[in-house]
Design goal:
about 30% strand; about 0% helix; 3-stranded parallel β-sheet; mainly beta; about 80 residues; 4-stranded parallel β-sheet
Length: about 80
């Protein structure tokens, strides 16, 4: 179920596991590009911003911003 004024960019995956899927996305939610919302029962609250390339597998309360931190590692080949 998706609420009103949901803004979804490209390459979004919304899915679940083998159990019944019940993903609820609230009103005024913005989901950044290449994000993944994965799980059986997840509730994303109202007025939530999900950053690009984020992985969400648990509930997000109202009025929150969530993103997945990524670290770039550079290894010099000698």
């Amino acid at each position: 179920m998706i609420g009103e004024n949901c803004y979804v960019l490209q390459n979004i995956t919304i899915g679940g596991t083998n159990e019944p899927i019940k993903i609820i996305i609230g009103d005024n939610v913005s989901i950044g590009a290449s994000s993944v919302i994965l799980g059986g029962k997840i509730k994303i609250g109202n007025n939530v911003k999900i950053g690009a390339m984020s992985f969400v597998n648990k509930d997000i309360p109202d009025n929150c911003t969530v993103y997945t931190q990524k670290t770039a590692t550079i290894i010099r080949n000698v």
